[in-house]
Amino acid sequence: MATVHLRIGDLVWGKLGRYPPWPGKIVSPPKDLKKPRGKKCHFVKFFGTEDHAWIKVEQLKPYHAHKEEMIKINKGKRFQQAVDAVEDFLKKAKGKEQNSDGKGDPKGKKTPNKPLKILEEDDEDLSALKDPSEKPASSMEPISKRLKIIEEDTGSTSIQAADSTAINGSITPTDKRIGFLGLGLMGSGIVSNLLKMGHVVTVWNRTAEKCDLFIQEGARLGRTPAEVASMCDITFSCVSDPKAARDLVLGPSGVLQGIRPGKCYIEMSTVDPETITELSQVITSRGGRFLEAPVAGSQQLSNDGMLVILAAGDRTVYEDCSSCFQAMGKTSFFLGEAGNAARMMLILNMVQGSFMATIAEGLTLAQATGQSQQTFLDILCQGQMASTFVDQKCQNILQGNFKPDYYLKHIQKDLRLAISMGDMANHPTPMAAAANEVYKRAKALDQSDNDISAVYRAYIH
């Protein structure tokens, strides 16, 4: 077979590991992202996603020559959206060529196409290009921003498995009936992605009007939590705090009344381990199966199907929910017995909350000492702490935009629960305790329903 020579700007089908080919464009890699040694590969930006990776030349095919072949073997809404994005790109490029005929550079020189901007960097580890059927070289093997297979075996509380969201969206939805209780910032995005991937979903929310949009998208309406649990094989819950989680299960017309042998209940709320233990016991006492699955992320990540799911409890429920977790998240971890996911989630949110408070403190100290806050941010984003989180939160602060992506009142609740967990383990949490006081002050300033970045206002009032 003749060798196909590819170059920057070419449209291609790129295959990454065990995942089906996906349309992309060969682009210039970031200057600080070196090409893997000893491998012939190109840096590809995939259409319809924020994904990009080094792809070996043998895993690349020209877009036009293989378009019909790929469309026949690949299905799914996200895949079709990516193909549509390629076609739109081609139409716009053709239009620009037609408009520029005779109107280009006065000397007749063509202006080279600019490479697509790479929003985030990927790991340079070549394990990203290995076949996942091979034994991984290390216990945690990055594949890409959205494609991860992680396996570690260090005991009952270790990571046992992780599912990955295929970038082509060709998820085979479970035939089990799914129920979802709680359509807040996180729940709304989760339900939307479950529906997009073809799951049959029945929804309930305390404020019934929030269900209307999802009914229009194809969801069914449950009148009470008990009815949803009774109608569905697997019921998810995502609410604000331990009290809301308990009331949903144990209250009037609660989930417990709809639980029968074999029914599955998955608690996605960020709560304390004691609440998880209590809910697990009451669900299993009725013959039900229980899994906790809190999520790390934000409203935007929920909408994008990019959450990180931390699961613990009944392993068979975790496996039964594989397609659901693939639809809502980029990676899921199974952490062993019920309660472990709650512990891990509180630790993660404790770190995030404390970090956000420190960033706000730095911004206000810069202002108080006559330094430019924008310059502080620019310097910060060029150093080791650079991240999308830091950039977005700081920019929002400087713009006075505190629209909630994660409620301030919820991060304060998580800090409080983490501090309590530390007390029970006789472990000091002085940094979290200090941050908690700042968030409490922000709440006293009516910032509860704003984003966590509104903790900034606790320093300027």
Short description:
The protein is about 40% helix and about 15% strand. The protein has helices spanning about 65-75, 75-100, 185-195, 210-215, 225-230, 240-250, 275-285, 300-305, 315-320, 320-330, 340-370, 375-380, 390-400, 410-425, 430-445, 455-460, and strands at about 10-15, 20-25, 40-45, 50-55, 60, 140, 150, 180, 200-205, 220, 235, 265, 290, 295, 305-315, 330-335.
* Average pLDDT level: 83
Please tally the β strands and state the result: 16
Strand fraction? 5-15%
Low-pLDDT stretches are 104-169
Structural class: alpha/beta
Question: What is the tally of helical segments?
Answer: 16
Give the biggest sheet: 9 strands, mixed
Indicate the radius of gyration in whole angstroms.
24 Å
Tell me, what's the shape? globular
Helix content: 25-40%
- How far apart the termini lie comes to 71 Å
